[in-house]
Amino acid sequence: MYDVIIIGAGPAGTVAGYLLGRAGLSVLLLDRKDFPRKKACAGGITPKAMALFPFDISCLIRRTCREVKIIRPGNASFTVKAKAPLCYITKRMDLDAYSLEKAVQAGCRFRKIGRIIRLDQDDCGVNLTLSSDGKTDILRAGYLIGADGANSKIRRLIGGQKSRIIKLPALEADVPVKNAGLHPMTFDFSRDIQGYYWIFPRKTHVNIGIFSAMPNGTMNRDLLKNYAEDRLKTDILSDVKGYPIATSYGKVHLGTGRVLLAGDAAGLAEPLLGEGIYSALKSGILSARAIEHTVGRKLFTPSDALGFYRQALGALQLDLRLYRCCASILYQFPKWSLALGSCNILHNCFSRGYSTGKTLHEILMPF
Ligand SMILES: Cc1cc2nc3c(=O)[nH]c(=O)nc-3n(C[C@H](O)[C@H](O)[C@H](O)COP(=O)(O)OP(=O)(O)OC[C@H]3O[C@@H](n4cnc5c(N)ncnc54)[C@H](O)[C@@H]3O)c2cc1C
Fold first, then answer.
1. Which CATH number fits domain 2-364: 3.50.50.60, 3.10.20.30, 3.90.79.10, 3.30.40.230?
2. Burial class (CB within 10 angstroms; exposed 0-12, middle 13-18, buried 19+) of 312
3. Which atom of ligand 1 lies closest to the CA of 12?
4. pLDDT tens string 200-259
5. Ligand 1 centre from 128 Cα, in Å?
6. pLDDT digits (tens, 9 = 90+) for 63-77
7. Among 345, 340, 279, residue whose Cα is nearest residue 312
8. Is the CB of 28 inside a 6 Å radius of any atom of ligand 1?
């Protein structure tokens, strides 16, 4: 019997595993993949996300961006600048493998698994039934953290489908270009897609992608290819990968009983630009703290962990509501919102806030 089983070794799962392992709890982290593994993600880490890592990840930073170019409908553009970094670019494959290594060093055990088939809870713990090569295996723990991403099986097993999870599609590719490092980090809203294209510079290539703010947004390789031809004068794409980003409208489902959901499994990514690593880290940390606080304390009942977790995530949920408002304004009225956004006073205020690691409600507080 483990104190905690964590499903999913993305940012939410590895940070929770690291903290719980370091706290001396017996922790088993499970993933269906071996690491390092490829992951659809542009690897952009904002300063507020960077500040959450409980270990140093500076060796993984491939570019530090202090400028962001925004292209408006009609192709006019403006540049948001800050003295401090606005975003750090990493490669997700390296970031997740490194974070997993840190979790294991902190005392967390890791295992690759086959299929999850059942999840049962009783007064004293959680039983997880797995199937691999025709064999079934039952693992038992006091608590379980579901950090298994946007298509979470754990969310489905605890009936979380009833919550209003919205999956927003995103697709990315690497494009080899000369002087990749000279390309500014770009968010391009010039096309009529209710979303945006991005260009993130790396050392030998740029990473390009499309994010749709609509769950049924059109997304395919040809759109990316046309975009690369148009903006980068090449149609050579490699490593094309897509995956949904899970956010939610209305009440977020954070778990049931002894099962807590974190990151995209709970639909905590923000719906404006699709940033999900910050929420994954934040919820991974807070779920770990809630469990650590409850384990072995007779004063608390098991459901107190979920209660502590819900309470601690209040600020993040407020931020998500603000992002939802901003997204509905931006994608309904892109021309007017970005014309307003190009105004120096406004974007300087946002860039100052972002570069100093503030959350959206902290930036908006003075207004
Ligand atoms: C194309 C694209 C670009 C993006 N770019 C950015 C960006 O630049 N910055 C940013 O902040 N966010 C970005 N995001 C969003 C970000 O990737 C996610 O929000 C983030 O990865 C969520 O972290 P997580 O830990 O909750 O889940 P994930 O990172 O999705 O990790 C889930 C883990 O669970 C495992 N798993 C899944 N199902 C099972 C199962 N049944 N059994 C066992 N293991 C399982 C998976 O193998 C995976 O390792 C992007 C997303 C996409 C699709």
1. 3.50.50.60
2. middle
3. 25
4. 998 889 999 999 999 988 889 999 999 999 999 999 999 999 999 999 987 789 999 999
5. 22
6. 999 999 999 999 999
7. 279
8. no
